[in-house]
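Trying the structure run again after the queue cleared.
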Amino acid sequence: MALGKDYVTQECSIARALEVVGERWTLLVVRDAIYGVRRYNDFLVHLGIPRAVLSARLRTLTEEGILEKRRYQETPPRDEYVVTERGTALWPTLRALGQWGREHVDGSRLRVFQHADCGGNVEVHGSCAACGTHVPVADVVMVPGPALDSAPADPVSRALLRPKRLLEPLEPLETDPVHLAH
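Done. Tokens:
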């Protein structure tokens, strides 16, 4: 029997949420957008996702109000995808899923999330371990963890090796020709 594509018979808010973000790749696209990835080619290169799948995921996330499509260049026309408030609200879910993966799947610490104000680590429930403050996503700094590849092949991963605040646009490395053309 084939698996259904929706959860219409489920009386459950988790099932309803999965209707929006439950497709394979979707949360990774949202994760990258929160990390500051905004351009189609950057998503494509960083995720290794098929073009048709990426286009479909970006269209759905835009239609659902999780991402907003914004024009950044007129000639030729080019758009970027910016996380909305609704998309930012997925950050606690992504943070918790990452923590679960570290504890129950691979044990690696690829990224560390710190409070921009004091440098304390942001715990799974969103509070700062050092000062106890609940840290909004815009005040989270992402830094490479000890298990992160220090020489990744793709330019987006290399750019993500630098500490950066979440939600701020990813600044490409100047030596990456793929970014210089965009």
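Residues 96 and 124 are 6 Å apart (CA to CA). Worth checking whether this holds up in the mutant runs.
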